[in-house]
Design goal:
alpha/beta
């Protein structure tokens, strides 16, 4: 009998047939009508929502999987509507903006990005983001998208090919299938580059509408001169049933793109407060706009070495990419890097602060006007750009949208159903309705009361499969060590202690016990973090060996003013750092 049951179970697993899942007595967020529906039972069959009913009306069969939703809140899976996989979020990812190729070759950055696309997707899923839209990738990333589609427990990826651009930074030229831009200065070139993408099956086409000039008039003239390129790109894309996303941050470039048939504006307007006629134009053309309020400031804060990450960001970002953000601290003392100090001075100047404040204000005023004018808003971060980390930056973007005057229902709508409209997928996902894909997030608190509750995730459902957010990522010893190094450099005590076991032991090698337990560490390091504002640890060398990591560290910014050179040996137990040995 047991053998027969095993065979039946085997057949069910490998024919794709699954028993129904019932999420019982849960409060459902209805993002279409902007209301909470208490005491609902959501039925999922083979990855599809087959019913949403009051719990009293549902009789649950014996063989069903039951998930208790009592006291919890079910929202649609979220979408980051603007990310870039060809960028890691670290300081080496955009050599056109911050050229550090003598320290990390760009080819190395490209290779690392390919190797870690799946890891980034796991971070997105862990944070409740079940779909991402990448408006500007490469042919190699389109191929990676296809290979990862086979995995049911990763976010859905919608991606364009290389950006068809009116300006291409020199550092990105001649990279073959790793080139993220295609320079088109004529209508013929524009059509050619749309056609070139078709064999890779992009989900849409992206234009980088960049104009330069000494003044506003020169920029307008340049934009007008380039209009045939924009028009030809859009026409060729539409001829092939592809929508078009456009980077256009000036009102006049955005207007030109929209009048020529663009579908999706991937940034807010930042050069002027938009007139009512512009709002009406976008609304009448059913344009979707992604504001990306935080990405520019992340560049400026990086240049000024004043980017501060929260505990949540330090714990839910790829440790290597976010860790690189602290490298400027030691790179500024290397030969031929005086420009790093100049950047730091410049981007902390009153003039830059005034400029940033003015542009931030314009973006927020415009977002409020566009929202009030009925324009569809889709939340997106532009993640991958320097300082804007994949996955973890999403919550800060939503909070910035809140500061513009949007309410929490509008923001939740912008993170769920509205992104699905970008590529006409709103009949498939984006809300909790019968017939839609069961991409869902079960929260332990109400997100309409507080946006931070979006980070309090109990379960993520991808294609109906319930996933524990704490087990989506495979945690490696090196990740844990790098996470605590990052938090050390950020002087964030909670994020620093998170990778450690409760009974962690700290030794001076070989066996002199210095402290035992997290609380003892907290007292020591809390005092250090408060007294040493310039504290910085540079990893000179790292050896990863089975269940141990050995770091050669150089620590500066100590109260003594002297650098401390040490070797740290980390040992692990149950995915936590259990012992550390220091050699001085």
């Amino acid at each position: 009998m047991k053998k027969f049951q095993f065979i039946i179970a085997f057949i069910f697993c490998f024919t794709g047939t699954r028993a129904q899942t019932y999420i019982q007595n849960v409060t459902v967020a209805d993002v279409i009508h902007k209301k909470m529906l208490p005491s609902q039972t959501v039925i999922i069959t083979n990855g599809i929502i087959t019913a949403v009913k009051p719990g009293k009306q549902v009789k649950i069969p014996q063989n069903a999987t039951i998930i208790n939703g009592e006291g919890k809140y079910l929202i649609p899976g979220m979408t980051d509507s603007h990310i870039h996989f060809f960028q890691s979020g670290g300081i080496y990812t955009r050599p056109d903006a911050l050229d550090l190729r003598k320290h990390v070759p760009y080819e190395q950055e490209i290779k690392w990005g390919h190797q870690n696309m799946e890891n980034f997707l796991q971070y997105y899923l862990k944070t409740g983001i079940t779909s991402v839209i990448d408006p500007g990738a490469t042919y190699n990333f389109l191929l990676l998208r296809d290979s990862l589609k086979k995995k049911q427990n990763l976010p859905s990826v919608y991606m364009s090919g290389p950006l068809i651009t009116t300006y291409e930074p020199e550092v990105f030229k001649n990279l073959d299938k790793d080139e993220p831009f295609k320079l088109a200065l004529t209508a013929e070139e524009a059509r050619k580059y749309v056609q070139e993408q078709l064999p890779y099956r992009p989900d849409f086409i992206k234009i980088w509408y960049i104009v330069s000039g000494a003044n506003d008039q020169e920029k307008r003239e340049k934009a007008k001169k380039l209009e045939p390129v924009i028009k030809a790109t859009i026409e060729e894309a539409h001829k092939n049933n592809l929508k078009v996303a456009v980077h256009a941050t000036e009102r006049f470039t955005a207007e030109t793109a929209v009048l020529n048939g663009a579908n999706y504006l991937v940034h807010d307007i930042e050069d002027e407060v938009v007139p009512d006629d512009f709002v009406k134009l976008l609304q009448s053309k059913k344009i979707i706009l992604c504001p990306t309020l935080t990405v520019s400031d992340n560049y400026y804060d990086t240049y000024g070495q004043k980017k501060h990450y929260s505990t949540y960001e330090l714990e839910t970002s790829n440790p290597k990419s976010i860790g690189s953000m602290y490298d400027l601290k030691h790179l500024e003392s290397t030969p031929d890097s005086t420009w790093i100090k100049k950047y730091k001075t410049r981007f902390n100047s009153p003039q830059i602060k005034s400029y940033v404040s003015k542009v931030d204000s314009i973006r927020k005023i415009n977002l409020k006007k566009l929202t009030d004018g009925g324009v569809t808003i889709a939340a997106g971060t532009d993640a991958g750009n320097i300082g804007t980390q994949h996955a973890s930056s999403f919550i800060e973007e939503l909070k910035a949208m809140k500061e513009s005057g949007m309410n929490n229902w509008q923001i939740l709508e912008s993170a769920t159903i509205n992104p699905a409209k970008i590529l006409n997928k709103d009949s498939q996902y984006g809300s909790i309705e019968k017939g839609k894909v069961a991409d869902l997030v079960l929260l332990t608190a109400n997100p309409i009361e507080n946006l931070d509750h979006l980070t309090q995730i109990d379960t993520v459902f991808k294609n109906g499969i319930p996933l524990n957010p704490n087990t989506i990522l495979k945690i490696t010893p090196e990740m844990l060590v790098q996470q605590q190094v990052n938090a050390y450099n950020a002087r964030n005590i909670d994020a620093f202690l998170e990778p450690y076991a409760e009974d962690v032991e700290i030794y001076t090698f070989p066996n002199a016990l210095l402290s035992k337990g997290k609380e003892s560490m907290r007292k020591t390091y809390e005092k250090l973090f408060k007294s040493a504002p310039d504290l910085h640890c540079e990893i000179k060398q790292r050896i990863v060996n089975l269940n141990s990591v050995i770091d050669k560290e150089s620590v500066s910014g100590m109260r003594s003013g002297q650098k401390v050179e040490a070797t740290a040996i980390y040992e692990f137990k149950n995915n936590k750092i259990s012992k550390v040995y220091f050699l001085y």
